[in-house]
Specification:
CATH superfamily of the largest domain: Type I PLP-dependent aspartate aminotransferase-like (Major domain)
Number of domains: 2
Radius of gyration: 22 Å
CATH architecture of the largest domain: 3-Layer(aba) Sandwich
CATH topology of the largest domain: Aspartate Aminotransferase, domain 2
Structural class: alpha/beta
Largest sheet: 7 strands, mixed
Number of strands: 14
Bound molecules: pyridoxal-5'-phosphate
Length: 456
């Protein structure tokens, strides 16, 4: 029974679902969605400025994807991988491998980002064992970073708050600093700090013992943990060179940055001389039409594992026909509408508009990102880069003001805000210029409302 004070009784009856609400308030009830807009059951319209948690790349209600979904459902929704191959899985893998290019000829399909992280770690480990390098098992990661909510993924997710709670039930992996560009130690310039961070990676490898290190995983363009962090180009080159020199696999977590969001199918394409050995994708690959994730790697790597007896991994829903057909239709639609090109074009405009906003707003300290994967850092004082005190719960309040004004935002404070606080600005890749203007106008209004109450 819910207590009389429980927020869950507000609409006149208990509900049994539980999530992690940002606060005790009920959210609006979703009714329907179309393109970049969503409506609640009271008829209020919202502009989706972040594609949910950076998912809805092709927008909502795409007729071709819905038709493909119905067509596949009419044929078969589920068939066990152990007993059948399925055409949708083969078509999806072929499309992804073609889009991803050389080095990514093999695709293992799962149901989301965390599962993709788990699969990548297990495949990397099995590959090392198959090659006679069983001493390699440590997966180095960046602090902060995010690779998922399951325990294996949490062990490489650089979040001190998660570590503190779950440490006894997982094996926390070594972390190296993320190359932040706005807040740097002692305010040193971003270039020097990025060099120091690459050096810290090498140092960590040497301290751990290179023969014990399996892989280094990073988000090439940061997600929520770093607020669309993009390091200076030389950082990626250095990281690739260090991994290669020590025989360590480089894994790019492109769960958020992949599938066209940065104006390339893979964000990795921005740094051709730092090509990773493995890539994970999720979110935008099925754009929220179905749960989907995947690991991409080379023909050689998979062959080594297959020759040693096969990949010791899989879930009931791995490669399920319905999700694969939907993912294939989403990516086909992205190609037909040139959404990767649109992400690049609109991304340039978005960067300019956010920069202009930062010049006039007293609380926007930094603008970062690539393509339509952008973030703005919220500060109380732009000269000193001082953040608002945690007690103000600024990000949660801004998200709430957005809801009030019909703008959907998405963020949370990484590690209680110790690295700073930011808002992701990651609209669907179908965004048009008039919609971009509408989004910026709403965002300006929301930030002004917050500044008025916070700086009063
Ligand atoms: C970079 C990154 N990796 C992994 C994940 C985990 O994905 P999922 O929530 O689909 O399990 C996320 C989710 O936000 C992410 O942003």
């Amino acid at each position: 029974m819910t207590s009389p004070q429980s927020p869950f009784t507000e609409r006149g009856g208990p509900i049994q679902v539980f999530y992690t609400p940002l606060d005790a308030k009920r959210r609006p009830m979703i009714s329907h969605a179309e393109g970049i807009y969503m409506w609640d059951t009271a008829g209020k319209r919202y502009l989706d400025a972040t594609s949910g948690p950076v998912v809805s790349n092709i927008g909502h209600g795409n007729a071709k994807v819905l038709a493909a979904m119905a067509e596949q459902a009419g044929k078969v929704c589920y068939a066990s991988r152990a007993l059948f191959e399925n055409e949708a899985n083969i078509a999806l893998a072929e499309r992804v491998a073609t889009l991803a290019g050389p080095g990514f000829e093999r695709v293992f399909v799962v149901s989301g980002g965390s599962e993709a992280t788990e699969a990548a770690i297990k495949l990397a480990r099995q590959h090392a064992v198959a090659k006679g390098e069983a001493s390699r098992w440590k997966v180095l990661a960046r602090n902060p970073g995010y690779h998922g909510a399951t325990l294996g993924a949490a062990a490489i997710t650089g979040d001190p708050e998660t570590d503190a709670v779950f440490e006894p039930v997982m094996r926390i992996m070594p972390r190296v600093p993320a190359p932040f560009t706005y807040r740097t130690p002692g305010n040193i310039d971003a270039d020097t700090h990025a060099r120091d961070c690459a050096q810290a990676l090498e140092q960590a490898i040497l301290e751990e013992g290179p023969e014990s290190v399996l892989a280094f995983i990073l988000e090439p363009v940061g997600g929520l943990a770093t607020g669309a962090l993009v390091a200076p180009d030389h950082y990626y080159t250095a990281v690739r060179e260090i991994c290669t020199r020590h025989g360590i696999l480089l894994i790019f977590d492109e769960v958020m940055s992949g599938a066209g969001r940065t104006g390339r199918f893979l964000a990795a394409e921005h740094w051709p001389d730092a090509r990773p050995d493995m890539v994970t994708l999720a979110k935008g690959v099925a754009a929220g039409y179905t749960p989907l994730g995947m690991v991409l790697t080379s023909r050689e790597m998979v062959q080594t594992v297959v020759d040693a007896g096969g990949f010791l991994h899989g879930h009931t829903y791995s490669a399920n026909p319905l999700s694969c057909a939907v993912g294939e239709a989403v990516l086909r639609e992205g190609m037909e509408q040139d959404l990767i090109g649109n992400a690049e074009r609109m991304g340039v405009l978005l960067g300019e508009r956010l920069q202009a906003l930062a010049e006039t707003s007293p609380i926007v300290g930094d603008v970062r990102g690539l393509g339509l994967l952008r973030a703005i850092e919220i500060v109380a004082d732009k000269t000193t880069k001082t953040a608002f005190p945690p007690s103000r719960k600024s990000i949660a309040r801004i998200v709430e003001l957005g809801l009030e004004k019909g703008l959907l935002l998405y963020s949370r404070s990484t590690a209680g805000g110790r690295y700073g606080e930011w808002l992701m600005i990651t609209p669907p890749l179908i965004l048009t210029e008039p919609q971009l203007d509408e989004m910026i106008a709403l965002l300006t209004e929301v930030l002004a409302a917050f500044a008025a109450e916070a700086l009063a």
